[in-house]
Amino acid sequence: MPKKERKRLQVVISEEQDALLTRTAYELSSPERLISKSEVVRLAIEKIARELGEGEHLDEYRALLDDTPEEDEG
């Protein structure tokens, strides 16, 4: 079976966001399986997309984005 092609995305995050990613990856990991920060990001994307598709948390996400300093628009 051919390897699944993936797109790469580079984003700038704060030290606080990196710490949250690290902590979340650690909490999701188990002795049998270590979870990477990239996997946490992919999981978050899927979770947010699913919730928005169901009409959930839209205002909460917008409020969070409004409170986030815009470092990179592209």
UniProtKB/TrEMBL annotation:
Stated name of the protein: Transcriptional regulator
